[in-house]
Amino acid sequence: MHVLMMSMYAAMAAVVLATVDPKSDTPRQRVIHGLKIFGSFLGIGLLLSWVLFPIPW
Amino acid sequence: MQTRDTLTDNIPPHFSDRALPFNQPTPFPLARRTVALIASWLVPGAGHLALGRYGRALLFFVTIVGAFVLGLSLHGHLYWPTVAEPGSTFHYDLITVLWFFAEIGSGLCYIASYVLGLGMTPIPQAAASPTFEYGNTFMFLAGLLNYLVIHDAFDIAAGRKN
């Protein structure tokens, strides 16, 4: 459930952020940029959860 | 036979200074710009629709309204600035002001939900759920992303980008 919600959040944010990006001129560049954003969200989210997991509060 | 290049080269100097480069974005009239901005805030993607960017309009509408509806279905809460406790530095509770600012960005989604009374009453079972905060987070996301979309519509309308 948590990973699904995080993935949906990352996907929605990536779609909009990649579309409004002024540096991407072609649809291909936007797709690549969106995938990078999506991957960054997921990667950083998983990393943070792994780092914070041992903390008891 | 004249080619496009030949025609371009033959533009007199006093016209060539005023000629726009190929594919250069042009600003929209002020009235259409204003309509696009207001529409963009009220309905995510409507500003782009008014500017003729149909693909972007659909994408933004589906994404942002989808995020807001998902947030509501996860028992997200509609926030309004509340008065801080006596003795506090600020008159309003700043965190509720921030949350309100994030949610009001989604325009009619927020207003319609407020009028219909959706997301107004806290549900104890939902608050006890480990995923309770997801609803709020998706509603914040919808509003904040729509601010970016409004900015994008403004840039297109002002002729700063295609």
Task: Write up this protein.
The complex is a heterodimer of chains A (57) and B (162). Chain A is mostly helical. Chain A contains two helices and no strands. In chain A, helix 1 packs antiparallel against helix 2. With 162 residues, chain B is mainly α. Chain B has one domain. Chain B is built from nine helices and no strands. The relative contact order of chain B is 0.18. Classes of the chains: A mainly alpha (57), B mainly alpha (162). The interface between A and B is medium-sized, with 13 and 20 residues.
Brief descriptors of the model:
heterodimer, A: 57 residues, mainly alpha, elongated, B: 162 residues
Shape of chain A: elongated
Radius of gyration of chain A: 14 Å
Terminal CA distance of chain B: 33 Å
Q: Which regions of chain B are unreliable across 5 or more consecutive residues at pLDDT < 50?
A: none
Give Rg of chain B in angstroms: 23 Å
Sheet of most strands of chain B:
none
How many β-strand runs of chain A? Answer: 0
What is the beta-strand fraction of chain B?
under 5%
What's the overall average pLDDT of chain B, rounded?
Answer: 85
What is the count of helical runs of chain A?
2
What is the domain tally of chain A?
1
- Main β-sheet of chain A: number of strands, strand sense, barrel status? none
Indicate the topology.
The complex is a heterodimer of chains A (57) and B (162).
Chain A: H1 2-20, H2 27-52
Helix pairs in contact in A: 1-2
Chain B: H1 4-9, H2 13-16, H3 30-42, H4 46-50, H5 54-73, H6 94-104, H7 108-116, H8 124-128, H9 132-157
Helix pairs in contact in B: 3-9, 5-9, 6-9
Summarize the structure in short:
With 57 residues, chain A is mainly α. In chain A, 79% of the residues lie in helices and 0% in strands. In chain A, 16% of the residues are buried.
